[in-house]
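go over both lines:
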Amino acid sequence: MPIFGIDFAQNFGLNLVNKDASVHDRLHELTTELANREAETIQLRYQLEEAQKQLLNQTWGMDRCKSDLLSSHHDSEGVKERLKGVENDRNYHRKDSNEDAYRKERGNENGELYPCPNCEKFERSIDALNRKVRELEEELATVKRERDKLEEEGNSWEVEREQEIKIMQQTLADAQREKEELRKRFEKEFESLRTVNTDREQHLLDDFEWKLREVEQASKKRLQAREEAVRNQCLDQQIQLKDQIQELQTKIKLHHSHEAELSQLRGLSNEQQRSLKVATRQVEQLQNSEKLLKEEIDKLKSLLQKEKTHLATMQGIHNREIAEKERKFQFKLDQYKTEVNSQVDEKVQRECARLRIELERNYKEERRANVEAAKQEMEKEFHLKKQNWDRRMQECIQELELLQKKLANKDKEYKQELEKIQTMSDRDMMELRRKLDKTEMSYQEKLEKVQEKCDKEIERINCEREKRLSEREEEVRSVRAELEELESSRAEELEERLAESRAKFEEQLREQREELLREREEALAAAEQRHGVAIDNLRNQLDSIYRSRRHTDSPQQDSLMRLHQELSITSESSTTDEGCIRGMVQASDDEFSCLQSQEEEDQVAPLPQQVETNKSKWKDKKFSAAEEGCIRDCAALQSSHLPRFRDDDVREDDVSSALLSAILYAQLDENRERTGNTQVLQTRSSRRKRRSRGQRGRMNLNSNFAPA
């Protein structure tokens, strides 16, 4: 009996150790199974992805096969058409060959041999066509074989694809079930974590409302400032325009006869137009400011949209955080379970070790005593230990049950809390949505009111601007009518004055021309008389010299001939001088006629300018050789001042010098007369200058006031 009790205790301890080891092994197996299941799920996902890729590749291969089949079908149809064409050609050539054969037979029967040069060509073409037909038939056979192969491959591909589709559908159904389970679990977690984001959303909404209020206040202030500035500018422009109109009216009444005031009026009208343009630009600026405000509102809307997207992203982040926390919580629960199990196992092992030690000690102590007493005691102790062990096992089981109940209660509490949090979050979301709707409605109403105000103000400003523009246009029209009346009256007055001045000027020109013609005739008569007297004197002197010196030698005759030549030259010079004078007079007549024509064309031309042009013409005029010689001789006579020759004590040298001096003095007298005539002309031109100054000033004024 004692041996049996000791063996039983040892066996019981060994059984407990084995149970503990089996429990540990079971836990390890379960963990390995979980890891294997997770690895299998990952592998299944990879397999699903690979199967999808294979499906895509197979569909692509099927499409390729279909396209190849279609192309082969088209090729076969083309080959068939070619075969039909070849058969038609062959039939045609057969008919031709039959006809030729029939002709040959008929020729042979009739005893006549008709030469057929095209028979060989037809035979060759028939052979070539037969070869082509064979080749095409072979190609058609190969195409049919390829088509059959492709159809078989396509059927096999379809069967494999159907099998793979079934497998994929099964795997997809499993994955969808797992996905539904995960979705339900994550929805629960999301509902539990909605309350975390409510405070933050409320804070963000408050910040956004505050920003919206600030922007609205700033926009209102800007609009009010712009409206006040525009009103002030319009009032200032009205006052300035009224003052300018009054000034213009006073200036028009006071200064009707001055061109400067007309230019001032034009400048003022231009300034008015500029001011109107400035007003239109200001209106355009207001419109641009309205556009900018609208753009700011759009920007605010875009910011609101961005905030909404930010909230959505934050919700996603919170969902991920909730999932991470749940995973950590589950991991902690698993750790807690493993720790509890390990603690229970350790307690059982410690109790078993303690019992072993006590049993061994009792066995050693009671071994010395009696076997029966030891056996009884051991049995009693064994029963007691067994009871204690059973009680402890029951306590451990009760503790485990209590822990499980606590866990279940905690799960229920967590679920209830999550449901409460979800309801609270839903209620808060509804309130927030209601507030958002209210704020959007109020903001929309405010925007509509502001838009209506802006539209009304714009309409009012446009009406005022149109009224002002119409008033200004009427004023400008009245001013233009007055100016046109003034210009018409001024043009009539100018035409009358011009007609009077033209008549006066024509009369003065006629008188001056008559005076010039009379003076020209007088000067020509005086010059002819002087030249005649001088020539007579020279001829008398020459005759006397010729009579006194008749017995002189040939040199003197030569000198006399030279003197005759000089006389002829002087006579020619006198004639040339007369021609010059007449040319000058004719030039003066031409100039006066040109002046008259220019005055008629240009209404009234200033005489000083004509005098200057005449001077420049006389300066730039090219004289003839005789005229240049006369001018040169006059200059020499004025420089030398030679004395006159006397009749007594005449010598050969003195004769030539006397003749030359007489000729030169005659030319000098003529030049003096010419200078006198030019002085007379200058005095008369100066008189004309004095007379025409007043007329020129009047004409300049009239030309300035003349209409454009």
Observations:
- The CA atoms of residues 320 and 590 lie 115 Å apart.
- The mean pLDDT is 67.
- The two ends are 155 Å apart (CA to CA).
- The first helix runs from residue 2 to 110.
